[in-house]
Amino acid sequence: MTKEPADTAVKNNIVIPEDYEFAYPPSEMVLESGKKLGPINIRYETYGRLNKDKSNAILIVHAFSGDAHAAGYHSEDDKSPGWWDNMIGPGKAFDTSKYYIICSNVIGGCQGSTGPASINPETGKPYGLSFPVVTISDMVKAQYRLVFEHLRLPFLYAVAGGSMGGMQALEWSVAYPDFVKSALILASTARITAQGIAFDAVGRNAIVSDPRWQNGDYYGKKIPARGLSIARMVGHITYLSDESMGMKFGRRLQTRQKYGYDFTDEFEVESYLHHQGDKFVERFDANSYLYITKAMDYFDLGAKYGSLPQAFSRAKAKYLVVSFSSDWLYPPYQSKEMVFAMIKSGRDVSYIELNSPYGHDSFLLETTRQKKIIKSFLESVNV
Amino acid sequence: MYSLKRPHLNYKIITEIIEEGSSVLDLGCGDGELLYRLKKQKGISGRGVEIEERMIMECISKGISVFQGNLDEGLKDYGTNSYDYVILNQTLQVTHKPVLVLKEMLRVGRKAIISFPNFGQLKLRFQLLFKGRMPVTKDLPYQWYNTPNIHLCTRKDFLVLCRENNIRIIEEIDIREGYRINSIFANSRSSEVIFILEKYV
Predict the structure, then answer these.
(1) Could you say which architecture CATH assigns to the domain A6-193+301-379?
(2) pTM across the whole model
(3) Which one, out of A349, B38, B49, B197, has a CA that is 20 to 30 A from the CA of B60?
């Protein structure tokens, strides 16, 4: 097969995001906190085709700053594809010529699904901090409504996600055991470490300390860009590793050859973080940052179901757990703990720690080995 | 990790031993070939433990469930008697704590199958006796400084270990250069030994 020029590939790959709205009052969705939320909109995309017996559907669940746009392009002049395009498509790890792939934006987010920036129907204004705190299990509950009620799927062949996506995939497999045939948990954890919570807390502090944050009521005004940008910078550090930063930036200065002994000196790594922060502010809502990091911090699968082995003894899914050697945010030992609990509960699980220098971000970068693993794991799933 | 160059006979023998539909845990499962054969030919349910990333990827691509782990950490999270068979094929000699591994195998499995190169074979004894150098053979191709085999033993050594640890030998299979042999003078003739073990109750 000859390689198609990039522009034709783009044209063949255009996806249109869809919406599903549900939980209209008085039948709002009850959240884990006991509060109610409704109506709820879920933004989602699908790739590939659902087969006749509806047995080939895979739900991709995104990480903290991800969205429903996992693969393909939104328009012909769209510059970059979806966030996991190197893994989703014909012949790729999640082969769209075989599987029907769904990816939805989490509630609490800011990429089309209902979140703090959405209009509160009671007031006609954006929710802001009046938006109820949502948890990972609330996000999953909303996804369940989408795939069960709206897409009318009898079950999911697989649920797959990295980082916070892995948390959702875990929750899916335990909360809806009959609905999930397999779960792929990449660079994730059954509960975040104290260190992880600490970094999230610094991010949240940066946002709420920005005078423009105004207790979350900044919509239509100047946004707390400074705080959000700093939050992202902190976050970004946790996604990399000592080794990858060393390789990428070293101690090089951005524009000068020698120290100027003033504060306009910028190390390359500083300028990189600034750039990441600025880019992020353009696409992310500061309040969503607060809500979603809080959801991650609250997530504790073992505590919710008694213990981790108790949680997994509810599940029926076949698991694949992948960790990365240099991931210090969701370190391999946590994946191992989770896998031991799965084994204890008699679950069928494969576990691999991939050797990689890229830290937590490895799950987005190490595509060659992950492709091979995911492809063959998916083939081994029985429905 | 395998030191063995001709694993096929060994696979064949182990496949013959294991009953249809058994549950099997293969420690140091390598590329998963043995579990794959057992699954296909004996319909077993099984999983492997392996340390090398490349090997684990091979297992997963064969559809074999595998856990990346170090055997010397023990099998603490595996329930007592949770498998019909625990296999340690050509791996005992690379473990740091062979006795711990052996005991754990017999706790987790109702039976254990263990195979290792017999360091008592004449060929090796002669090399040491006449050449005065550490033995190197086709099956044990390493130099003393680069061998993964850190705990080599003879067939007899292993028998003593079993006796000391209250382990019952159900069956012994002696292999010489890829062929099954009778057990007369097995300690000096066999290049590899397979034992089926259980604990005395």
Answers:
(1) 3-Layer(aba) Sandwich (3.40)
(2) 0.92
(3) B197
